[in-house]
Amino acid sequence: MASQSYIRWLGHAAFEVSVGGKKILIDPWISNPLSPVTLSEITHVDYILITHDHFDHLGEAVDIAKKTNATVVGVFELVNYLGEQGVKNTIGMNVGGSVKLTSEIEVYVTPALHSSSRGVPVGFIIRAPEGTLYHAGDTGLFSEMELLGKLFRIDVAMLPIGSLFTMDPRQAAYALTLLRPRAAIPMHYNTFPDIKQDPNQFKELAESLLPDIKVFILKPGDSVQLPIK
Ligand SMILES: [Zn+2]
User: Fold this and answer.
1) What is the pLDDT of residues 12-54, one digit of tens each?
2) What's the CA-to-centroid distance between 86 and ligand 1, angstroms?
3) What's the 103 CA to ligand 1 centre distance in angstroms?
4) CA distance readout (Å), 30 to 107, 115, 188, 212
5) What pLDDT, in 10s, does the model give residues 140-182?
6) Is 189 left (phi over 0), alpha (psi -120 to 50) or beta?
7) pLDDT above 70 for 191
8) For the chain, what percent of residues have pLDDT higher than 90?
9) Domain count within the chain
10) 47 forms bridges with which residues in the sheet?
11) How far does the centroid of ligand 1 lie from the alpha carbon of residue 74, in Å?
12) Which secondary-structure segment (H or E) carries 128?
């Protein structure tokens, strides 16, 4: 199973995660300007995790869920709305809650400092046999990240660095000092001119603050194999 387990960046905040024998999409805005895939190429998905309902995160979740019969996981008010849009399988949650998707995969909902039209914005911790993954969603820096780092031994943290709507590279690097993951992947940057950033600035600062950390700067379509070595 190990060789088939990975985190693949689909541009912006969208990731395809393969763990515990399941395919999980996070924030599936597949039509984002950086996306390496088209909607028609997405044929098999088990779960879709959505951090909040802004278009650049909700993306094509409704179409993908209808096409693949995937179960959509998100905040209660958001998944109720998706149910009204015809999505059949949903799990409504809220901050602090967790759910076992399978005997091997557990998802926790974490806070995020941002906005959302339906319910609150969140992040996710995914605990799987290949590692513990944190997708922060869109967020500013917040001190409770230190508690997340203590509660969960995070292997890989996916953090926004684009600024304007979220943390910038400097704040995201400081977030890593609270979260203490083994590895980090920057996201939510360079999709539009408004959130243009140099991910190397994030990597260099992270490495100066945490000498043992691995920062993976991915090109859209690139993957990190799990477990992290
Ligand atoms: Zn966003």
Assistant:
1) 999 999 999 999 999 999 999 999 999 999 999 999 999 999 9
2) 24
3) 31
4) 22, 21, 13, 33
5) 999 999 999 999 999 999 999 999 999 999 999 999 999 999 9
6) beta
7) yes
8) 98
9) 1
10) 24, 71
11) 15
12) strand 122-128
Q: How far is the centre of ligand 1, averaged over its atoms, from the C-alpha of 56 (Å)?
A: 5
Nearest to 70 by CA among 79, 61, 78: 61
Tell me the C-alpha to C-alpha distance, in Å, between residue 167 and each of 120, 151, 162: 18, 22, 7
Q: What average pLDDT score do residues 190-196 get?
A: 97
> pLDDT band at residue 1, thresholds of 50, 70 and 90?
very low
Ligand 1 centroid – CA 124 distance (Å): 15
Strand partners, 98: 108
Which CATH number does the domain housing residue 171 bear? 3.60.15.10
CA of 188 to the centre of ligand 1 (A): 7
In the reported structure, the alpha carbon of residue 1 is separated from the centroid of ligand 1 by a whole-number distance in angstroms of 32
| pLDDT recorded at residue 3 | 53
User: Can you tell me the distance from the alpha carbon of 98 to that of 108, in angstroms, rounded to the nearest whole number?
Assistant: 4
Between the CA of 229 and the centroid of ligand 1 the distance, in Å, is: 30
Q: What is the DSSP letter of 40?
A: G
Residue type, 162: G
Q: Which domain holds residue 58?
A: 2-225
CA 76 to centroid of ligand 1, rounded, Å: 19
Buried b (16+ CB within 10 A) or exposed e, 132-141: bbbbbbbbeb
Ligand 1 centroid–CA 94 distance in Å is: 19
Q: What value does the mean pLDDT take over residues 80-87?
A: 98
